[in-house]
Design a protein that fits this description.
7 helices; alpha/beta; 21% strand
């Protein structure tokens, strides 16, 4: 089984080609199924993110069984999401919710409470143990910024992905990201001496990810 590889394909297709119990950790950021609509932001941003239905019909449940199959016993799976996804994740068996405090109020109604956080749904297969100290479940790492500062609509800081990886796996382990986007999980794996497997449906984001990884002198198979 090759590692350090980003597949330009739907992850469900790719996951079915992996053997059982071969992945040490899953950290993934699937579509949230909420399709933002807003008048806030540049015209370029609205066209790229807000005024499209790129996540409208997504259902994480369709992917869950394959992700669970490839995950090793006594391992973690972290799935990014928002409160709209809570009931789905609860029905699938998530054990608890971590909170990423992004350090700003994010988009939304200026007359309502800001939502400057995202949820990380924690799944445990068996009885995995975190590495190091027992840290707070609120992770305070500042977001990388809005609009033109990001390479992908839901891009996360490498530091927050790296934090989850280091707390939940060991050097040389294989980390899977089923929705690779611009390759942030792969970047974090490079920085922490982990191997990775990723899937991304849109070829333009595979290209972006590979360009980012070339800058770190990591060999990537396509």
């Amino acid at each position: 089984m090759k590692t350090n590889i980003i597949h330009n394909m739907d992850c469900l297709q790719g996951l079915k080609e992996l053997p059982d119990n071969c992945i040490d950790l899953i950290v993934t950021d699937p579509p949230y199924r909420i399709s933002y609509k807003s008048n806030y932001g540049t015209n370029e941003y609205k066209e790229r993110v807000q005024h499209t239905d790129w996540d409208k019909d997504f259902n994480f449940s369709d992917y869950y069984s394959e992700l669970w199959r490839v995950l090793k016993e006594d391992s973690f799976m972290y799935v990014w999401g928002r409160f709209e996804n809570y009931e789905i994740m609860k029905a699938l068996g998530m054990k608890r919710v971590l909170v990423w405090d992004k350090g700003h109020n994010s988009m939304g109604d200026l007359e309502d409470w800001g939502i400057g956080y995202e949820l990380i749904y924690l799944f445990k297969k068996g009885k995995p143990k975190i590495r190091g100290s027992r840290d707070n479940g609120i992770i305070r790492i500042t977001h990388i910024g809005y609009f033109d500062k990001t390479l992908h609509p839901t891009q996360k800081p490498t530091s927050v992905i790296r934090y989850l990886i280091e707390k939940s796996s060991d050097i040389g382990d294989i980390v899977l990201d089923a929705f690779m986007g611009s390759g942030t999980t792969a970047m974090a794996c490079k920085q922490t001496d982990r191997r990775f497997i990723g899937y991304e449906l849109e070829s333009k984001y595979c290209d972006i990810a590979n360009e980012r990884l070339k800058q770190t002198q990591l060999e990537v198979f396509v």
